[in-house]
């Protein structure tokens, strides 16, 4: 096997080209807009498929340097925080609690599916956790963190199984959010508030005029928020509370944005606000494109039977739970439909897939400000804590 490493600058440049492919395809084919298929999914998956073909046909494995990917997520969440006001946060208190409770319930159900399918395939039931919340809601990081524990328990190939499950889940997560929202919006005849500016990006039909001052002003504030978020993250770690860096940047953005509006009595310039929307849209698109570029589809082959069955069951559970429970308990309005598209993303993918699903929906149908506050907080903070506690409990119960 010939391994070719693609260094960071070339990886980043290729990601830009692939994002253009996604944007071109979305503009060219109305069906992609109709079902709110995220632009990054198209280019990113094309790359992953091409890499897999090279692997099988030419015995060449491409490895992309994805170090820059995680920095893009920091910019995105800092921008979300800067555009969030305390009034919206306060109004989102009850929905935030409800969605957190629903997420906890879902983690238990998701692991129940994994445990049951593993037993049906004659495996140790605990193997099912690797195709449950460890790899799906938890992601690659959680999978790699838990893999040594499973290996110590005598389960070989734990990391490979978890990563394979995450690969399928990530692709599915990017594809189900838009159709879920479309079904709910059409079924209940829901509409967004007209004229509201989007939290991320712009409407498909809209063109934006942006001068260099607005873009530079937005960039400066984002860098300030990331610096504050870094310091805040260090403080939280010292206090024994480990949270993802992007959550600290989100909190920093909220503090900076509200300090400016409430204390300094200065609202953000319209040009700067547009700059924030565009920067956050580009950063999120680039992040997900690079995440999909890094998928190694050949890892699915070794356990395709079990993964196919368990991921089909997980997909059905995600759609059913989101449509019949999450949407209803979150208010059965347009905001609830957007939140549902995000919930479908986090149950099978990651926080980034949740947000990119909501972005695609709002670019097609209109803004949903509350959704972009509630979902990142639940996905990026509360759900990680709950997931760790539940995984610990289940491993203790079945080991």
Automatic annotation (TrEMBL):
<feature type="transmembrane region" description="Helical">
    <location>
        <begin position="72"/>
        <end position="90"/>
    </location>
</feature>
<comment type="similarity">
    <text>Belongs to the glutamate:Na(+) symporter (ESS) (TC 2.A.27) family.</text>
</comment>
<dbReference type="GO" id="GO:0015501">
    <property type="term" value="F:glutamate:sodium symporter activity"/>
</dbReference>
<dbReference type="Pfam" id="PF03616">
    <property type="entry name" value="Glt_symporter"/>
</dbReference>
<keyword id="KW-0406">Ion transport</keyword>
<feature type="transmembrane region" description="Helical">
    <location>
        <begin position="9"/>
        <end position="29"/>
    </location>
</feature>
<keyword id="KW-0472">Membrane</keyword>
<keyword id="KW-0915">Sodium</keyword>
<keyword id="KW-0812">Transmembrane</keyword>
<dbReference type="GO" id="GO:0005886">
    <property type="term" value="C:plasma membrane"/>
</dbReference>
<keyword id="KW-1133">Transmembrane helix</keyword>
<feature type="transmembrane region" description="Helical">
    <location>
        <begin position="304"/>
        <end position="327"/>
    </location>
</feature>
<feature type="transmembrane region" description="Helical">
    <location>
        <begin position="41"/>
        <end position="60"/>
    </location>
</feature>
<dbReference type="InterPro" id="IPR004445">
    <property type="entry name" value="GltS"/>
</dbReference>
<feature type="transmembrane region" description="Helical">
    <location>
        <begin position="339"/>
        <end position="360"/>
    </location>
</feature>
<keyword id="KW-0029">Amino-acid transport</keyword>
<feature type="transmembrane region" description="Helical">
    <location>
        <begin position="276"/>
        <end position="298"/>
    </location>
</feature>
<dbReference type="GO" id="GO:0015813">
    <property type="term" value="P:L-glutamate transmembrane transport"/>
</dbReference>
<feature type="transmembrane region" description="Helical">
    <location>
        <begin position="126"/>
        <end position="147"/>
    </location>
</feature>
<feature type="transmembrane region" description="Helical">
    <location>
        <begin position="213"/>
        <end position="232"/>
    </location>
</feature>
<feature type="transmembrane region" description="Helical">
    <location>
        <begin position="96"/>
        <end position="119"/>
    </location>
</feature>
<keyword id="KW-0739">Sodium transport</keyword>
<feature type="transmembrane region" description="Helical">
    <location>
        <begin position="372"/>
        <end position="398"/>
    </location>
</feature>
<keyword id="KW-0813">Transport</keyword>
<keyword id="KW-1003">Cell membrane</keyword>
<keyword id="KW-0997">Cell inner membrane</keyword>
<keyword id="KW-0769">Symport</keyword>
<feature type="transmembrane region" description="Helical">
    <location>
        <begin position="167"/>
        <end position="185"/>
    </location>
</feature>
<feature type="transmembrane region" description="Helical">
    <location>
        <begin position="244"/>
        <end position="264"/>
    </location>
</feature>
<protein>
    <recommendedName>
        <fullName>Sodium/glutamate symporter</fullName>
    </recommendedName>
</protein>
<comment type="function">
    <text>Catalyzes the sodium-dependent transport of glutamate.</text>
</comment>
């Amino acid at each position: 096997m010939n391994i070719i490493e693609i260094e960071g600058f070339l990886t980043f440049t290729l990601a830009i080209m692939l994002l253009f492919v996604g944007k071109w395809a979305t503009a060219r084919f109305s069906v992609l807009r109709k079902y709110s298929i995220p632009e990054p999914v198209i280019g990113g998956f094309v790359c992953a498929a091409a890499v897999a073909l090279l692997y099988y046909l030419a015995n060449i494995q491409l490895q992309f340097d994805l170090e820059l990917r995680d920095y893009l997520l920091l910019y995105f969440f800092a921008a979300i925080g800067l555009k969030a006001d305390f009034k919206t946060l306060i109004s989102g208190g009850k929905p935030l609690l409800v969605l957190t409770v629903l997420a906890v319930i879902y983690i238990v159900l998701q692991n129940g599916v994994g445990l049951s399918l593993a037993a049906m395939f004659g495996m140790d039931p605990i193997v099912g956790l690797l195709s449950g919340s460890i790899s799906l809601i938890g992601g690659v990081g959680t999978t790699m963190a838990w893999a040594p524990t499973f290996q110590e328990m005598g389960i070989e190939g734990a990391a490979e199984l978890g990563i394979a499950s995450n690969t399928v889940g990530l692709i599915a997560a990017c594809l189900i959010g838009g159709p879920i929202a479309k079904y709910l919006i059409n079924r209940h005849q829901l509409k967004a508030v007209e004229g509201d500016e989007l939290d991320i990006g712009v409407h498909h039909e809209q063109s934006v005029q942006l001068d260099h001052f607005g873009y530079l002003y937005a960039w400066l504030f984002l860098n300030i928020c990331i610096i504050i978020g870094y310091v805040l993250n260090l403080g939280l770690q010292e206090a024994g509370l480990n949270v993802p860096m992007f959550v600290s940047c989100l909190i920093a953005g909220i503090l900076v944005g509200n300090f400016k509006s409430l204390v300094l009595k200065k609202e953000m310039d319209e040009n700067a606000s547009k700059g924030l929307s565009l920067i956050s849209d580009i950063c999120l698109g680039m992040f997900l494109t690079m995440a999909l570029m890094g998928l190694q589809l050949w890892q699915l082959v070794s356990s395709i039977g079990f993964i196919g069955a368990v991921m089909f069951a997980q997909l059905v559970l995600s759609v059913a739970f989101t449509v019949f429970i999450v949407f209803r308990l979150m208010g059965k309005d347009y905001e609830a439909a957007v939140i549902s598209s995000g919930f479908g993303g986090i149950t099978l993918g990651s926080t980034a897939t949740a947000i990119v699903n909501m972005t695609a929906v709002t670019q097609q149908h209109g803004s949903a400000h509350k959704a972009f506050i509630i979902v990142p907080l639940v996905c990026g903070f509360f759900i990680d804590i709950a997931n760790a506690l539940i995984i610990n409990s289940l491993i203790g119960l079945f080991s």
